[in-house]
Write a structure and sequence with these properties.
This protein is α+β, with helices and mostly antiparallel strands. Helices cover 26% and strands 16% of the residues. The longest helix is centred in the last third of the chain and has 9 residues.
Length: 76
């Protein structure tokens, strides 16, 4: 178990062991949830790189502009 102190301004630091295990970097985001037991769950969301996006669009009938517009709306 790893513990973190809450500092001034209610800031916390993600412990190094957790950052390394989950490959969390400064550009990633953390989603906070309160579960049914009133415990806090932290869910990391990795920032997508261009390499992560290659091949994500498989609709051959769309052109590049349409694909970008649909992807930005979460429709793909």
């Amino acid at each position: 178990m790893v513990m973190t102190k809450i500092s001034k301004g209610y800031k916390i630091t993600i412990p190094r062991i957790i950052r390394r295990e989950l490959n969390i970097s400064e550009v990633d985001k953390i989603e906070w949830k309160i579960n049914e037991n009133m415990n806090i769950e932290l869910i990391p969301h990795k920032k997508k790189s261009m390499m992560d996006l290659i091949g994500i669009i498989s609709d051959e009938d769309l052109d590049a502009l349409e694909s970008c517009e649909k992807a930005s709306k979460g429709e793909l």
